[in-house]
Write a structure and sequence with these properties.
The structure is a single chain. The chain has 187 residues and is mainly beta. Helix content is 2%, strand content 43%. The chain is built from 1 helix and 12 strands. The chain has one helix at residues 38-41, and strands at residues 49-51, 57-62, 67-72, 81-84, 88-89, 94-104, 108-116, 121-128, 131-137, 143-147, 152-159, 167-178. The strands form 2 sheets. Strands 1, 4, 5, 7, 8 and 11 form a 6-stranded antiparallel beta sheet that branches. A hairpin with a 4-residue loop joins strand 7 (108-116) and strand 8 (121-128). It starts with 37 loop residues before the first helix and ends in a 9-residue tail after the last strand.
């Protein structure tokens, strides 16, 4: 059901999104942002996301508040989906929450939050496009997914129409654990 992607870790410190205040800034949030944004904010997109097919392309681009990611869809199976290489290992059952900013000419821009290995489900949000300007996804709520010990949580962005050459830009990823399971923490 879920496409699992081997993902790499980069040191013991979790990265957070930039605040537009200079190269590679990593502001602290509470609860902490678990999404590793620091490497693409520093200009290296290859360690953060990958195409789930062989031909989709991941690049660094100008983001909403610094550097962002640019996913380019290619023809062929799974080349329309881009998964985070990082995985969040779940040791205690919890609700994970996610938001991001996206921009794309796609008719629908989808963000999925996976809990794989034990739960094997995802929650997704489909943003009606095209989104010519940076748009928060979801706009007013967050995507949430319950996860169990043994799960690995990760993000995926995709163009459901699989149009070769179409671009999805992503910035300011935010993934956190909700203390009360409602994902209403101030972000």
């Amino acid at each position: 059901m879920a496409v699992l992607v081997m993902m790499s870790a980069c040191g013991p410190q979790m990265m957070t999104p930039d605040a537009g205040g200079g190269a590679c800034s990593v502001p602290v949030k509470s609860p902490p942002n678990l999404a590793r944004n620091g490497l693409f904010e520093c200009g290296d997109p290859t360690l953060e996301f990958q195409s789930d097919g062989a031909a989709g392309k991941v690049e660094s681009t100008t983001g909403r508040t610094g550097k962002g990611l640019k996913f380019t869809v290619a023809a062929g199976l799974f080349n329309n989906q881009f998964s985070s290489k990082w995985k969040l290992t779940v040791s205690t059952a919890a609700t994970y929450c996610a938001t991001a900013y996206v921009k794309s000419p796609a008719p629908v821009i989808t963000m999925r939050l996976y809990a794989a290995n034990v739960t094997n489900f995802w929650k997704e949000f489909d943003l009606p496009g095209p989104a010519a300007d940076w748009s928060r996804i979801p706009p007013t709520i967050v995507v949430n997914q319950n996860a169990q010990p043994g799960d690995e949580v990760f993000l995926m962005f995709l163009d459901e129409s699989s149009t070769a050459g179409r671009v999805i830009e992503v910035d300011d990823l935010d993934v956190w654990v909700s203390a009360d399971g409602r994902c209403q923490e101030a972000r």
